[in-house]
Design a protein that fits this description.
Helix content: 40-55%
Shape: elongated
Main location: membrane
Protein name: P-type ATPase A domain-containing protein
Radius of gyration: 35 Å
Family: Belongs to the cation transport ATPase (P-type) (TC 3.A.3) family. Type IB subfamily.
Keywords: ATP-binding, Membrane, Metal-binding, Nucleotide-binding, Translocase, Transmembrane, Transmembrane helix
Strand order of the largest sheet: 10-22-21-20-11-18-19
Subcellular location: Membrane
Number of strands: 22
Oligomer: single chain
Largest sheet: 7 strands, mixed
Length: 667
């Protein structure tokens, strides 16, 4: 009666609860592939159908053989338990996305205005209803509901959850804010600029999701092994069955080894089922994707957005890191330090003409010149007055009319001001325009360049009349990061459109030996290709539109400081903070992730290499160790869980601090 009752109960487990294994195995076989479901279906079916045959044979003949119904039910139980634990663990790998989604506030305070633009009230609305140009009120201690620009008030905002920057950032009139960040002290009115899928937070979530779903190239190896794994295991199982059975028939081992009321076939079948069930292609399949999911999430939490497994894998092999100079190694806050006029023109008049020419340019050096001229003009002209003019009124009020403006990348600008041709730029611009550079001007420019400043030449009607010296201070962490990269076995290179003397002076300050100067924006990609010729992996770190061709050409493009949209599009890594330390974090995280993946593979392969012979009875003759099929099933389930848990240890990753970067050494 016990056997008949077991048959009834186990049939429910085998075909109702275990139906998923048959369905998945059938689908795999129809597609011409094999997977773990095929092994589970084979192992459980073998023990189940053998037991049914033994039971019916006993009922007909009266000769009762032992049945193994509990083997199939316990197998299915342990495999499903393993799957459940695995799902729990895998759920934790996507915690980063959950945290990012939770950053967005559910509601926002909309400021209602009358036709004249005056505030007449406030209304709480759902965040999903925010439209571009809406004015929103952000109270102290609440989250910023959308990306926007501050139009009123000042406060400190904690942006660590998005950028990884721990120090609160001052926000005042004109400052940009990111949705999901925390307003700390003062009240702010912001004008929404980007909402929905255009918002920074939505783009980060989208990037992380895409990265977590992408496959690293190393996964192809696991997929190939898994594809031939199941047929090999089934073959080994059959070999095990025949070896034990034939050996028993030939009397190679004593009958005392057989189970009670058992025979050689049943004895051999248990070993064979154990081999099928203990083999685990899943551990191989989980080794890479789980680690990639955790690493991309950890990267996002640290302000390093990774665009997929392929970028993550390549970054560990980086041999060269190419840095742009302006805005990457330097702070991008250029300021005029020298202004020398070589004719009788007054300095104020000279600066007014130069600023008028540069006002239409987006280049950082142009902005520095306009700002310097504006300050000079108003300290000179209006120092006696008590009123401080606004920035908008000052720009338009004192500049001269400009026509035929032309920006020449890597050279400067050319235009006409009040009918006179004005050229502002470097030596190359002057030479191409056929303008001779006097010796005294050349000497002054050389002095500037040797002190790491950029000399900007100014010509009116084909005569050079003055020179401006512009300095862009280095980022405080630049020298330490360069030293850290060298200790990691990575060679830093600086590529800039600036002249050779300035480039060498800057490179010497930060400790870079390899410098490429006077390179046009399009030429940066050619420099990268020259490093790639010997098969080296090259990374490019840049921030602007002019860096996007080089970011795309590099094996690993890193857009720093969440630069321009075009740079982000072209990059493989997006470094949210404007901090060079994150270049080291990106490489270090990649190396740590792939050492973990290799560890996962070693464990998964070693498990199968050791477990299959033990399940096949290799230790039974000498030590009497025999793994029943249900124990083999438990081992298989735990191997998958252990690989996922190994990947989850990456959540404990801590990025190298400035003080510890120099302790990093190449492994």
């Amino acid at each position: 009666m016990g056997d008949w009752l077991k048959w009834a109960l186990v049939s429910v487990v085998q075909f109702v609860i275990g139906k998923r294994f048959y369905v998945a195995a059938g689908r795999a076989l129809r597609n011409g592939t094999t997977n773990m479901d095929v092994l589970v279906a084979l192992g459980t079916s073998a023990s189940y159908f053998y037991s049914v045959c033994a039971l019916l044979y006993g009922a007909v003949t009266g000769f009762w053989s032992p049945t193994y119904f509990e083997t199939s039910s316990m197998l299915i139980t342990f495999v499903l338990l393993g799957k459940y634990l695995e799902c729990l663990a895998k759920g934790k790998t996507s915690d980063a996305i959950k945290k990012l989604v939770e950053l967005a506030p559910a509601t926002a305070l909309l400021v209602i205005k009358d036709k004249g633009g005056r505030s007449i009230g406030e209304r709480e609305i759902d965040s999903l209803l925010i439209q571009p140009s809406d004015t929103l009120k952000v109270l102290p201690g609440t989250k910023v509901p959308a990306d926007g620009v501050v139009v009123w008030g000042s406060s400190y905002v904690n942006e660590s959850m998005v950028t990884g920057e721990s120090a609160p950032v001052l926000k005042e009139d004109g400052s940009t804010v990111i949705g999901g960040t925390m307003n700390l002290h003062g009240a702010l009115h912001i004008k929404a600029t980007k909402v929905g899928s255009d918002a920074v937070l939505s783009q980060i979530i989208s990037l992380v999701e895409t990265a977590q779903m992408s496959k690293a190239p190393i996964q192809k190896f696991a997929d190939y092994v898994a594809s031939i794994f199941v047929p090999i295991v089934v073959g080994l199982s059959l070999v095990t069955l025949f070896c034990w059975y034939i050996s028993g028939i030939l009397g190679a081992y004593p009958e005392e080894w057989l189970p009670k009321n058992g025979n050689y076939f049943v004895f051999s079948l248990m070993f064979s089922i154990s081999v099928v069930v203990i083999a685990c292609p899943c551990a191989l399949g989980l080794a890479t994707p789980t680690a990639v999911m955790v690493a991309t999430g950890v990267g996002a939490n640290n302000g390093v957005l990774i665009k997929g497994g392929e970028a993550l894998e390549r970054a560990q092999k980086i041999k060269y890191v190419i840095f742009d100079k302006t805005g990457t190694l330097t702070q991008g806050k250029a300021s005029v330090t020298d202004a020398k006029v070589f004719t009788g023109m007054g300095r104020g008049e000279f600066l007014k003409w130069v600023a008028s020419a540069e006002a239409s340019s987006e280049h950082p050096l142009a902005k520095a010149i306009v700002e310097y001229a504006r300050h000079f003009h108003f300290f000179d002209e209006t120092s006696a007055t008590s009123q401080t003019p606004s920035k908008e009124s000052t720009i338009s009020g004192w500049l001269l009319d400009v026509s035929d403006f032309l920006a020449l990348p890597g050279r400067g600008v050319k235009c006409f001001v009040d009918g006179k041709q004005v050229l502002v730029g470097n030596r190359k611009l002057m030479t191409e325009s056929g303008i001779a550079i006097p010796d005294q001007v050349e000497h002054f420019v050389v002095e500037l360049e040797e002190s790491a400043k950029t000399g900007v030449l100014v010509a009116f009607d084909e005569n050079i009349i003055g020179v401006l010296g512009i300095a862009d201070p280095l980022k405080r962490e630049a020298a330490v990061v360069i030293e850290g990269l060298l200790k990691m076995g990575v060679k830093p290179v600086m590529v800039t459109g600036d002249n050779w003397r300035t480039a060498r002076a800057v490179a010497k300050e930060v400790g870079i030996q390899d410098v490429r100067a006077e390179v046009m924006p399009a030429g940066k990609a050619d420099v990268i290709h020259s490093f790639q010729k010997d098969g080296s992996i090259v990374s490019m770190v840049g921030d602007g539109i002019n860096d996007s061709p080089a970011l795309a050409a590099a094996d690993i493009g890193m857009a720093i400081g969440a630069g321009t949209d075009i740079a982000i599009e072209a990059a493989d890594y997006v470094l949210m903070r404007n901090n060079l330390e994150d270049v080291i974090t990106a490489i270090d995280l990649s190396r740590k992730t792939f050492s973990r993946i290799r560890l996962n593979y070693i464990f998964a392969m070693a498990y199968n290499v050791i477990a299959i012979p033990i399940a096949g009875g290799a230790l039974y003759p000498s030590l009497g160790i025999m793994l029943p099929p249900w124990v083999a099933g438990a081992c298989m389930a735990l191997s998958s869980v252990s690989v996922v848990c190994s990947s989850l240890l990456l959540r404990r990753y801590r990025k190298p601090r400035l003080t510890t970067i120099l302790e990093i050494t190449v492994e």
